[in-house]
Write a structure and sequence with these properties.
Blueprint: E1 10-16, H1 17-32, H2 35-55, E2 58-65, H3 73-86, E3 93-100, E4 102-104, H4 105-120, E5 124-134, H5 136-141, E6 146-149, E7 154-156, H6 168-173, H7 198-222, H8 228-231, E8 236-238, H9 239-244, E9 250-251, H10 254-261, E10 266-274, H11 278-281, H12 285-308, E11 314-316
Parallel strand pairs: 2-3, 2-10, 3-5, 5-6, 5-7, 6-9
Antiparallel strand pairs: 1-10, 4-11, 7-8
Length: about 325
């Protein structure tokens, strides 16, 4: 990692997708094809290699799987920095496989800003959505030069939501006083335990509307062909409807799209992964299970806390 040191040791791994696919093609052919067909395949693979070397065009694939906190931004920011430092804008391309139902405003704002770095540097950015890119996820997707969606992927949900439970009446029933001290008229608009005033509620709603306006302007800036007022209702769409509304540009899976790039482009998958611990290196299953289970539990607890947080607006569709 470059500028932000992770809490757990991490490493960057780059895989040449062409070489991986060609190796698999050869393995299948060695089992199923004749010697003559195997020779033809070898010649075809060699020809494709010459074409790629002549074109000298590279495609870099990044993956972003979003949670409520957009925690995957910690990896993609470093991966984008490396691409900007090594790839050539105008010649090389970037593809992001994106999956996210959205989440916290500041987290997805930062994730979107990282993708803007690629656009501003002059890279052709393609975002592929196989399952869902809703709310904050779509805010990231709209930055792309082109959005490619699977036929039943979920797109849109351009809206803002905040859920605020209030326990004030329960506290009163048990004769519990809750006192909140602030400096500034709107330092705290609504709370979980205090008695919310009409003025505080109105201010909180105003802040949500302001966030929604910023969201719409951001989408409109990077996707001017989209009628933002028509789609910024919090609804989501599938497939052909998304095409008709200009939410996406093509309907195909990321696999189909990447396969079409392989004959003439060198395609590289860049991923950041946590370095294995000593227990994992020694093959201890207990260590592997614990290391996989504990972060999942922590992430779930954080997600539940965020849902209960009284003043955190989300670019998230709670239906997903």
């Amino acid at each position: 990692m470059l500028f932000h040191l992770p809490k757990l040791p991490a490493e960057l791994r780059v895989s040449h997708l062409n070489a991986r696919i060609n190796e698999q093609r050869k393995r299948i052919a060695q089992t199923t094809a004749s010697k003559f067909e195997l020779l033809q395949l070898s010649q075809q693979i060699a020809k494709e290699g010459r074409i790629r070397r002549k074109n000298n065009q590279k495609v870099y694939i990044l993956d972003f799987k979003g949670d409520v906190q957009a925690s995957a931004v910690e990896n993609i920011r470093e991966e984008i920095t490396l691409i900007l430092a090594t790839a050539k804008a105008g010649r090389d391309r970037v593809v992001v496989r994106l999956e996210s139902p959205g989440g916290m405003v500041h987290g997805y704002g930062l994730a979107a800003a990282q993708l803007v770095r690629l656009r501003d540097a002059g890279f052709h950015l393609t975002i592929c959505v196989d399952k869902v890119a809703a709310s904050g996820g779509y805010m990231m997707a709209c930055i792309a030069s082109e959005i490619i969606s699977a036929p039943f992927a979920i797109l849109g949900s351009i809206g803002v939501v905040a859920q605020v439970p209030n326990f004030n009446r329960l506290l009163k029933q048990h004769n519990v006083d809750f006192e909140l001290y602030t400096a500034g008229e709107f330092k705290r608009t609504v709370t979980m335990f205090g008695e919310n005033t009409p003025e505080g509620k109105a201010k909180f709603e105003e802040e949500l509307q302001q966030t929604h306006v910023l969201f719409k302007h951001f989408v409109e800036k990077y996707r001017p062909q989209l009628n933002v007022e028509k789609v910024a209702t919090g609804e989501h769409w599938y497939g052909q409807d998304a095409i008709d509304l200009n939410l996406v540009d093509q309907l195909k899976t990321s696999d189909e799209y990447l396969l079409s790039l392989l004959p003439q482009h060198d395609v590289y998958v860049i991923e950041t992964r946590r370095k294995p611990t000593l227990g994992e290196k020694l093959g201890l299953q207990a260590a592997q299970m614990a290391d996989a289970f504990i972060p999942a539990v922590v992430n779930k607890l954080v997600s539940e806390v965020v849902k209960l947080n009284s003043a955190t607006p989300l670019f998230k569709d709670s239906r997903f």
